[in-house]
Amino acid sequence: MSEASDIRAGDWVDRFLPEAARPYARLARLDRPIGTWLLLLPCWWGTALAQGGAARWDLFFLFAVGALTMRGAGCVINDLWDRDIDRRVARTADRPLASGRIGVPAALGFLVLLLLIGLGVLLQLNRQAIVTGVAVIGVVVLYPLAKRVTFWPQLVLGVAFNWGALVGWVAVGGAIETPAILLYAAGILWTLGYDTIYAHQDKADDAEIGVKSTALLLGRQTRPWLAGFYAGAVALLAASGISAGAGWPFHAALAAAALHFVWQVATIDLDDPKDCLAKFRSNRDAGLAIAIACLIA
């Protein structure tokens, strides 16, 4: 494997899983949990804020299982669309579909299994949340095509990845309300920030093969745009809390997330893939700070 590969030999997948299961674990990105966190956290935001700060641990657990399986399903869909592109990018060339360790029929069968588990989780929610959850499937399926036609695939990802804020709210309250919409919009701007950072890892390869991203579009102007994305996210989160009647503890915890975003923007080295990956992963901590804010609202 190349040094740039996002697959690391000798990790827990190699140590603890049977050989036949390893490619499927990597296809679902079980070895890289940050994506699951970034999908899960908006679900927890919506659930907690809708409860006025009270914890619905049953919903927290269901969303954790759902995020794990649906993030895995999304990765399978992404890799099915992108297997030819992935072979040409150093970071992704060793992925199971791109490298041929898993064939398309086997990947499709695995996708069906993950979708069935996700459906089982969704059916545990109320009817309104089920309908809300199903409504985003089209965006999830088509997201991998976005980078072929627009420099804003990160926006499409944000639409899909933060839908859980709406589902979480509806699972508690039964309807989409203003705080949920503001929370969702904040999540989209958050995703524009962290996924632009992530895209800077691949900008050289992407430019060569013709794949589009906000990293390529914004280039040397990325830092002020990141500041704008994150500032907008914090403002919308504050507005969501005010709309939901959150008290000062919500805003105090939100301030911690805001300081984290300031640190990211101030210290990011956009020409260092390792630093970009580290800053991208640090968004789990920012998202957890926001979740705590919603829990103590």
Note the run of SSEs as H and E: HHHHHHHHHHHHHHHHH
Strand content: under 5%
Number of domains: 1
Mind telling me which CATH architecture this is? Orthogonal Bundle
Shape: globular
Low-pLDDT stretches: none
- The CATH homologous superfamily is termed UbiA prenyltransferase
Helical element count?
A: 17
Mean pLDDT: 93
Q: Based on DSSP secondary structure assignment, what is the total number of beta strands?
A: 0
The percentage helix is: over 70%
CATH class: Mainly Alpha
**Strand-pairing-aware structural class:** mainly alpha
The major beta sheet can be summarized as: none
CATH topology type: Tetracycline Repressor, domain 2
CA(first)-CA(last) distance? 47 Å
Q: What is the radius of gyration computed over CA atoms, rounded to a whole number of angstroms?
A: 19 Å
Concise synopsis of the structure shown:
The chain contains 17 helices and no strands.
What does it look like?
By secondary structure, this protein is an all-alpha fold. The radius of gyration is 19 Å and the shape is globular. The mean pLDDT is 93. The protein starts with 11 loop residues before the first helix and ends with a helix. Helix content is 74%, strand content 0%. It has a single domain (12-295), classed as UbiA prenyltransferase (Tetracycline Repressor, domain 2), CATH 1.10.357.140. Helix 10 (163-173) packs antiparallel against helix 11 and helix 11 (178-199) runs antiparallel to helix 16. The longest helix is centred in the first third of the chain and has 30 residues, at 57-86. It has 17 helices and no strands.
